Give the backbone structure.
Amino acid sequence: MDLMHPNRATMIRVALEVMPFERTVPIRALDLGTGTSYFTQRFLARFPNSVVLAIDGAEAMVNVAKARLGSAAARVDFRIGDFRRLRQLTEGTSGIDVVFSSYALHHLDRVDKLAVVREAVGLLRPGGWFVNADIVRAQSHELEERFQALRVAGIVERARGRDGRFTDSATTRRFLDEMETNERDQPLTIGEDVEILRQSGLKSAEPFWMEYRELVSGGIA
């Protein structure tokens, strides 16, 4: 992730900064697509009286997340399943203070993404927050090509020849193409992404931070 997404730490910092919660208040959060729980780990550290309901589709990934969190894993309720089945996975849950996600929702097409975000927003208490740190694509083909070229060059530079997948532009591009096909990446434009937030039931939704293909956005229920 550090090779692929050098802005990850910055994006999570921005996402946490925008959340208007006092550090010591008890907060109930939902993490959509927790992965290795990078976001959850930092959320728990910032809000020491918080608890998180963390959803991911892979048991192996959840095991990695538990190892990352250590003793803090006791504050996380892990549930394994496809977050397109969010209603079933969160049955009996309501009054969530914040829903957050990172590098997960771009695997959904526009219809599924709106459905998932709408269900997640429905779990928020009035005044709760939705925050997403994810990738987007450019509106124009020309800009997307330029952003992709910058992306590849950055990965090659950071790898410094130490990773055979990223020795040069051609091998890096091939790896990225295969990965995105296998993972069914379907990033939307920034306009489409923010519009989904607005259609989901949030009273307000805005982009908070952006660099090329990476965006932090969210809003208030």
In short: The CA atoms of residues 57 and 81 lie 4 Å apart.
